[in-house]
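To assess whether the prediction recovers the assembly geometry, we first specified each molecular entity separately, as shown.
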Amino acid sequence: MKAPTKRGEILQAALELIAEQGFHGAPMAMIAERAGVGAGTIYRYFETKDVLIRELFEDLQERILADILEAFPAERPLRERFFHFWMALFRYMIAHPLHFRYMEQYHNSPYGTALHRERILGKPDNPDLFRELIEEAIEQRAMKDLPVPVLFSLACGPMIMLIRDHILGFVRMDDALIEKTVEACWDALKR
Amino acid sequence: MKAPTKRGEILQAALELIAEQGFHGAPMAMIAERAGVGAGTIYRYFETKDVLIRELFEDLQERILADILEAFPAERPLRERFFHFWMALFRYMIAHPLHFRYMEQYHNSPYGTALHRERILGKPDNPDLFRELIEEAIEQRAMKDLPVPVLFSLACGPMIMLIRDHILGFVRMDDALIEKTVEACWDALKR
DNA sequence: ACTAACGGAATGAACGTTCATTCCGTCAGA
DNA sequence: TCTGACGGAATGAACGTTCATTCCGTTAGT
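The predicted structure of the complete assembly is given in tokenized form:
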């Protein structure tokens, strides 16, 4: 399929260890070992551990966005796009639990806060799909009259908690249940 | 008012450092310094750093619960109790941002997962106020027909995100906005 | 009333461990 | 033979924890 490059092996090893054990449980030596690589070799591809962590995050972010954008019904009504967005994200995370766990670790760390700040304040060069969705809905007066961060949290909050609970095995989210959940979020948002 | 005990000083110092900097940013030496205490002294009060962290969590948990239970309208209708619970929790966290940040750090760590498991599976000796609220609502058929963890996340998820955003200054939650938000959550939950 | 002995509380230098990073000898390909 | 990629031992900083020592309020003896 794809010839595994050294760089790729290192990223994959870091992903697995950090997702499963957190940043604590992923020392460079262990990442090297799992990647089948000398400890020093990592530094040929990543300047520091920090850079490795950040590049892995950006890598995953791109892959996730690409997945959601695939078959995105850009021309359909708002509600349909809202549903597509969340269903796709949910399914992706359930199919790639390591990606979710990594993103979670990343967000709950000093890295995460700076990123969140950019999202809230709407960094322009990063086309934030969900943010655009919300802003369009506000224009159409389809949503409750609440500040953007509140609307944002009404949708994101439950999703994130539920994906974690599913991955940890506390609840089984099948397609029907995901749809019902997205529906409930929509009820929270809609005017 | 209260004579500050050494134990209390240590807990307060740990709370501040961990809430502000995370577990990483709070080495024992630094906690000792801020508490105005020798490094070794901490070990007269807490067996290990682990124990210190856990006892601080339990201490905060108790204080928060006591605050919510104050003036809790136990005999009023479900909806009113739901509103009281979330309004009180919200106000408490906004008034005590360090407590919130500490709880967040704790939950996003190995400590947190075990705890969450107990909550979801319903450890009986810990009277979980919100869980009881949900279960009563299910009996009354006042809520959507969804599994408990889903209902749970529909309420908790947004609240947690919003309290963080408020503390980080991304949104200003005043009493009126909090009420509107709780209302939106209720819309997500109600049948 | 004064002092000397006592003992638990407190201290912080020192220890052992863990980690990110660097260094340098080795080896494969050109 | 020369070059640069590679591995893994070496390095030093940072951390949690320990322990020999100091400090100080209390007590017992005179």
